[in-house]
Amino acid sequence: MTSETGTISIVIADDHPLFRGAMRLAIDGMFRQPRITEASDVEQTIKALQKDDSTDVVLLDLKMPGISGFSGLSFLRAQFPSVPVIVVSGSAEHATIRRCLDFGAAGFIPKTTEVETMRTAIRTVLDGGTWVPPDFDQSVPADKETADLVRRLASLTPQQMRVLMMLSEGLLNKQIAYELSVSEATVKAHVSAILTKLGVESRTQAVIMAAKVDLPEGADKA
Asked: What percent of the chain has pLDDT over 70?
């Protein structure tokens, strides 16, 4: 899988510059003149993907400014469904890996993974496969609560997912409207649709449901 120019295009989304640099070095050794874009927060990640519609893969940290836990992964998969996402995390807990796969990740690489293994993981995903640590059992199914949550979140449009993320950050309708450059009436319509699709009756209940997409405390330390 390559872009129309024949050049591999990769987005590294992580708020730690040293780790982005390490990933860049690993990728540089894999391909001839890869096109690599670095993003330190969710907004930069979105802009990078909007700017380059031929991005081949995103390497995503689970925790960085603008996202927390699985919400960023879920959002990227909803807004850019054709771009595979590999989660690169400081956690290697099986529950975290399972949830990443449930929310649409094409791969999961612990940050402690050796460079050659990381390269193997990236190549596997670029070839259309899925890569997880060898000791992870992919046959274990998601729990029913997670499966239901994934189904409900998948029904949201990209803009609705974004509004839900902003609700989770405590933003008011007026603030969300400003951030998205839309009217308050449009935000209210999105919130109403979100409540209906999630099967809840209030913004608070929606935020509580969204919180279930977050990581356990301390589960993603770099």
From this structure: 90
Three-state secondary structure readout of the chain? CCCCCCCCEEEEECCCHHHHHHHHHHHHCCCCCCEEEEECCHHHHHHHHHHCCCCCEEEECCEECCEECCHHHHHHHHHCCCCCEEEEECCCCHHHHHHHHHCCCCEEEECCCCHHHHHHHHHHHHCCCCECCCCCCCCCCCCHHHHHHHHHHHCCCHHHHHHHHHHHCCCCHHHHHHHHCCCHHHHHHHHHHHHHHHCCCCHHHHHHHHHCCCCCCCCCCC
pTM greater than the 0.85 cutoff: no
Neighbouring C-beta atoms of residue 105, cutoff 10 Å: 27
When pLDDT is averaged across residues 25-37 and rounded to a whole number, the result is 90
Domains, the chain, ordered by start: 9-126 (3.40.50.2300), 144-211 (1.10.10.10)
Nearest Cα to Cα of residue 99 among 76, 131, 74, 80: 74
What pLDDT, on a 0 to 100 scale, did the predictor assign at position 129? Answer: 95
User: What tokens appear for 33 in the block?
Assistant: 């003149």
Higher pLDDT, 153 or 199: 199
Pairing of strands 35-39, 63-64: unpaired
